[in-house]
Amino acid sequence: MSSVTRAGNARPLRGEGSRRSLWAGFLFGLGAVAFIDEAVLHRLPHRRPFHDGSASGIGLVSDGLFHAFGWFAAVLGLVMVADAARRRCLDKRFLGAGALLGAGGFQYYNGIASPDRPWYAIAVLLLAAGCWPLLSARRRGGAE
Description:
Blueprint: H1 16-43, H2 56-86, H3 92-113, H4 117-139
């Protein structure tokens, strides 16, 4: 990714670090919660319900692909964090907000896949907590 910078300055233009941090956090939050869902809620207690009514073989393949995507998202998010830190444009507020939004997005999706009211409640809380720093930054006049 190329970076547009001010003349003679190694820091990216206003807002670029916030966007990078937000996306990095989103991907990491999504991947981290996907891992927690898989390991803690399914693998350790040895339960794997398939709600789509498909055969268990197809369900295992689709579930494996889904969680492989979660790991890919987490690793890509960490690579983006390292890149933003190297460029000295990592915004920790937006990183945290993105992580909460990613986690909340996963929880919301997970609630659709297996309808469960507590999942939706957790998703709404995570999404609201992720929006809070974004709204407060907007009121202050932008990021950076």
